[in-house]
Amino acid sequence: MTNRPERTETFLLDEDAGEVKITYTQDTKVTNSGTFILNREDHTLGNLLRYQLLRDPSVKFAGYRMPHPLKNHVEMKVQTSGGNVSPVDSLGSAIEDLLNETDHLVTGLNDAIDRYRRENEEADLGL
């Protein structure tokens, strides 16, 4: 009997209550900037996205914060240099780039596992 929230509350959306994964609010004071709220996420995704956004030359600023340790959402602010690139476009590109890097990592890992198994099978067979 603790006051700890259920483990699934940290990552499963409450779809019955209409909770969405990402919301965006455009900043009215600073041009080409806005705030994303990433629901049911933590520092893992926040830091990955911030790092990937900062690799984009059209992004002037990218930062995030978690308002409270027991609140499972990330507030991410993004400002772009303008032109044809909006904060929404930049975040979309960052997500696509991270997906591509993850696919590359999985492919490399699977190749290494296959190579290890082949080498060990040859050693077991005395070849």
From TrEMBL:
Location(s) in or outside the cell: Nucleus
Keyword Transcription in annotation: yes
Major location category of this protein: nucleus
DNA-directed RNA polymerase RBP11-like dimerisation domain span: 35-105
Similarity comment: family membership: Belongs to the archaeal Rpo11/eukaryotic RPB11/RPC19 RNA polymerase subunit family.
Species, as recorded: Corethron hystrix
A GO molecular function held by the record: DNA binding
Annotated signal peptide: none
InterPro entries: RBP11, RBP11-like, RBP11-like_dimer, RNA_pol_Rpb11_13-16kDa_CS, Rpo11-like
Pfam families referenced in this protein's UniProt entry, alphabetically: RNA_pol_L_2
Keyword Nucleus: yes
One Gene Ontology term, aspect cellular component: RNA polymerase II, core complex
Keywords per UniProt: DNA-directed RNA polymerase, Nucleus, Transcription
Any one biological process term the GO annotation gives: transcription by RNA polymerase II
Protein name: DNA-directed RNA polymerase RBP11-like dimerisation domain-containing protein
